[in-house]
Design a protein that fits this description.
With about 550 residues, the chain is mainly beta. It folds into 6 domains: about 110 residues, Immunoglobulins (Immunoglobulin-like, Sandwich); about 80 residues, Immunoglobulins (Immunoglobulin-like); about 80 residues, Immunoglobulin-like, CATH 2.60.40; about 90 residues, Sandwich (Immunoglobulin-like), CATH 2.60.40.10; about 90 residues, Immunoglobulin-like; about 55 residues, no CATH class. It has 4 helices and 42 strands. Strands 9, 11, 12, 14, 15 and 16 form a 6-stranded mixed β-sheet that branches. Strands 33, 35, 36, 38, 39 and 40 form a 6-stranded mixed β-sheet that branches. It is flat.
């Protein structure tokens, strides 16, 4: 029978240092070794036939079943009898171990494994800090050599006990910028970590920071001739450690800031007043030392034209029959010269450097859609000044070429009709429906100047047979649309008489053979739900139904 497994196990670890082995190792090998023991506790099984417990262990793998070896107590499983705690000793601390417990009864039947506990390896990483020299100036590289039996997962660097950097993979190093630090001694250390959380700490390396008092050397480059338009300016700086920032100043106002040398800047000289100006470059290093250099500039830009052109004439016809409308007049004047003409449908002033401008006045303008619209005329000069708008309003009416859409509907369902037939016509058009006409077999039956109308057609006024209904709709432009034709068969049943009853009786008695028309007229039985349901033959039932109708019975 199956055994009840222990509910859970807990674990305690202690390290038993083998002093004699340690001393011998130091004599013969370059590394230390030590043994580890694990104390396991678990909840007792509630099985009435409990005989004892077995402890399973295995190194570096959780794959079942556990088959570990190397413990002082022997290979797995270890029979610990009927106790709920045991110590496993002699384990290699450089390995991770997995433990589980089973219970067994008096006949040796064993339970499934308890919960599995992992004990991670306990060997701390080894780490050593390296530095380029005992004196640091500017930015120096601080590095570390780290190793571990299972692998290093992270290295952290510390300066005077404060973490300065962290690296997750080799090479383990970081750039230490000392330029802004106070001169003096600084303690450098590092810690290495493995996946089990073991931590190794390096020895402390003392580095002396010398400090920086040398300011950067700065040069500035600008044209010496009188300046106009866009002007290229540049500056550069060098330092005994590193340039941290460099800026350009025009008449004391900062116009550019950069964090590396050289820097360049394009000055729009038209944005400053004509005359003399001072351009300076100032550079800083990380220690806060500053150096500068200045040159003089002379700006001499021509006076800018700020007077826009004036539209003197703009005209278009009041009405048109096409989207492309001729321009009857378009002229403009300027204090210098008109260089561009433009017509838009928007009242918003266009940009002088935008698209669509022409060197001469356009002869026509195309509107986006029919209707009443206003066109706006603009003129510009070489300086990009744009005039106020001239305007003209045009009403565009395009020819109507779209035919109306027509629908034709008969109230009688099916292809055979009789009696009065209700006919419905409906039409739509992009402008308006002027007339609707109904035709039967090509002959007009009725018309209306509305977009829809209904009429009754008396099928008894025509002979039985096939008739085709059509409809046409017309708009004011004469465009005509035609509905899908509907073809029906007119079949009006004539009134029965005593002669019909006698003929039916002769057919029922096999005295005569009926023709097709007689079968259609005389086959009226049986009657289902008050209506004839012809069964394809003429018999006594048909005679009785005909006599009933003749004498006025239903």
């Amino acid at each position: 029978m199956a055994r009840t497994k222990p509910n859970k196990i807990s674990v305690k670890i202690s390290l038993l240092y083998a002093v004699l082995q340690l001393l011998l190792t130091f004599c013969f090998f370059p590394s230390a070794s030590f043994a580890a023991s694990v104390v396991l506790d678990w909840d007792p099984s509630t099985d009435a036939d409990l005989a004892g417990y077995k402890v399973y262990y295995q190194a570096n793998s959780s794959a079942l079943p556990f088959g570990g070896s190397g413990a002082d107590e022997g290979s797995a499983p270890l029979d610990v009898k009927n106790v709920t705690s045991t110590t496993i000793s002699g384990l290699d601390p450089s390995n991770s171990y997995y433990f589980a417990v089973t219970a067994y009864n008096s006949v040796g039947t064993e339970s499934v494994y308890s919960n599995i506990i992992e004990i991670k390896e306990a060997v701390a990483p080894s780490i050593t800090v390296t530095a380029p020299s005992t004196t640091a100036i500017g930015t120096v590289t601080i590095g570390a050599n780290a190793s571990d039996n299972a692998g290093v997962t992270a290295v952290r660097f510390f300066v005077n006990g404060e973490m300065a950097a962290e690296k997750s993979s080799a090479p383990y190093s970081f750039e230490w910028n000392t330029a802004s630090l106070t001169p003096g001694s600084y303690s450098i250390s590092a810690k290495a970590y493995d996946a089990a959380g073991n931590e190794g700490t390096s020895d402390v390396v003392v580095v002396t920071v010398a400090g920086d008092t040398v300011k950067p050397a700065v040069s500035v480059v600008a044209p010496t001739a009188p300046l106009s338009g866009m002007v290229a300016l540049s500056a550069s700086a060098t330092d005994n450690t590193a340039v941290a920032a460099i800026e350009l100043q025009l008449d004391g106002a900062v116009i550019l800031t950069g964090n590396q040398s050289p820097v360049s800047y394009t000055l729009d000289s038209s944005a400053v007043a004509n005359g003399s100006h001072q351009l300076c470059a100032k550079a800083y290093d990380v220690a806060g030392n500053a150096g500068d250099a200045c040159v003089s500039l002379f700006v001499n830009n021509p006076v800018v034209d700020s007077i826009p052109p004036v539209i003197s004439a703009f005209g278009m016809p009041a009405s048109a029959g096409a989207l492309n409308v001729p321009i009857e007049s378009f002229s403009a004047t300027d204090n210098v010269a008109v260089t561009g003409y433009l017509v838009t449908e928007s009242a918003d002033p266009p940009a002088g450097n935008g698209e669509g401008w022409s060197a001469s006045a356009p002869a026509s303008f195309r509107f986006a859609a029919p209707g009443t619209h206003t066109a706006f005329a603009w003129a510009k000069d070489a300086a990009g000044n744009v005039s106020a708008a001239g305007s003209a309003t045009v009403t565009i009416t395009l020819p109507d070429t779209t035919a109306p859409a027509v629908s034709l509907t008969l109230s009688n369902s099916g292809s055979t009709v009789s009696g009065t037939v209700n006919v419905s016509l409906a039409a739509t058009d992009d402008t308006a429906v002027a007339r609707l006409v109904l035709y039967v077999n090509g002959k007009m039956q009725g018309s209306s100047n509305m977009s829809s109308f209904n009429m009754e057609w008396n099928s008894t006024s025509v002979a039985d047979g096939s008739y085709t209904f059509t409809a046409k709709a017309f708009d004011a432009a004469g465009n005509a649309g035609e509905a899908v034709p509907v073809t029906v068969t007119v079949s009006n049943v004539r009134e029965l008489s005593l002669l019909d009853a006698l003929t039916a009786l002769q057919v029922a008695c096999a005295k005569i053979i009926p023709n097709a028309e007689q079968v259609t007229q005389l086959d009226v039985a049986p009657v289902v739900g008050g209506k004839s349901a012809p069964d394809g033959k003429i018999d006594a039932g048909d005679v009785l139904v005909i006599l009933s109708r003749v004498v006025g019975k239903k």
